[in-house]
Amino acid sequence: MRGAYVVIAVIAVVAVLLVIGVFNIIRSSFSGPEEQVAQPPAAEETESPGEEPAEETEEAVPEVDKTEVSVAIYNGSGVNGAGAEYSEAVESNGWTLAETTTYATPDTTSTVFYADPAHEDHATALAAELGIEQVEESAEFTSDLTAVITSDIAEQGPPGSEGGAAESEGEGAAVPDEGAGGEGAEGAQP
Fold it and tell me: Which regions are flagged for Gly residues bias (predicted)?
């Protein structure tokens, strides 16, 4: 009879361990499964003597004539002064600034839009200088290139700046601001 109790005790312990294991598996599958997947180790590059170094996988920024296009900066971030900061970066890098304005957008990813397919290289070069990753063709804007600055980069400012603007502004439609090409609200900063 004593042997039966031992068998029942062993089965009970195994059952409890199985329940705990199943519970942990289910719990871990609901808490960020992407974080639990191990990244494959990076392949190490070995170069033989006399061998050329491997090429970088990043595309090089195209060389363009910055005076061929006009650039508009649309501040859609809600961060006061971000448009002005990016406008200054555009002008200091040799681009022709057409206008700076505030812009209402639900987007949260900054984008450089180009109106003509011939300006795609210009848009790519401008995006690289401003720290913007997305470039798209669009007939929605009147300038050759339009950089829509949103919350993803507004507070950090353009590369090479000492941080960005930090005040939030109210939402509104596109309103021209003071600055190159803008004849709108006095004292407003995009």
Answer: 179-190
d(CA 123, CA 81): 23
Residuewise pLDDT in 10s, the chain (190 residues)? 788 889 999 999 999 999 998 888 877 766 555 555 555 555 555 555 555 544 444 567 778 899 999 999 999 998 999 999 999 999 999 999 999 999 999 999 999 999 999 999 999 999 999 999 999 999 999 999 999 999 999 888 888 766 545 444 444 444 444 444 443 333 444 5
Whole-Å CA distances, 149 to 49, 86, 132: 47, 8, 9
Is 81 in contact with 138 (CB distance < 8 Å)?
no
Distance, CA of 177 to CA of 101 (rounded, Å): 5
pTM: 0.57
CA distance 148 to 99: 12
